[in-house]
Amino acid sequence: QVQLVESGGGLVQAGDSLRLSCAASGRTFSSYAMGWFRQAPGKERAFVAAINRSATSTYYPDSVKGRFTISRDNAKNTVYLQMNSLKPEDTAVYYCAARRATDWGVARTIAEYDYWGQGTQVTVSS
Question: Hey, which of 31, 32, 108, 118 has its CA 20 to 30 A from 56?
């Protein structure tokens, strides 16, 4: 089992950047594919970014492609989400997720993930 703790959220202005971190417990972090999701008030949780076990593959939806970058440091048991050119519509609670993986692919749907963090609030003012 793995526990995930997100950090780095906050209040920023449109156009600013923010980097989220997600620290994972345990000694098998490299066995997990990782992802970020977000949930705005009144909306369903939505996929934001994914990275495979070895950081050789990433995937983003069009809404964040070119602005957000997911990365991981397996030595530090941490996955990051660098968010640039933030927009008010990026305002949401951001969740980190982990998926036990035996392959080298990325996971894009909520159902594929096994563990979730508690979330961190990101608010972008206009």
Answer: 118
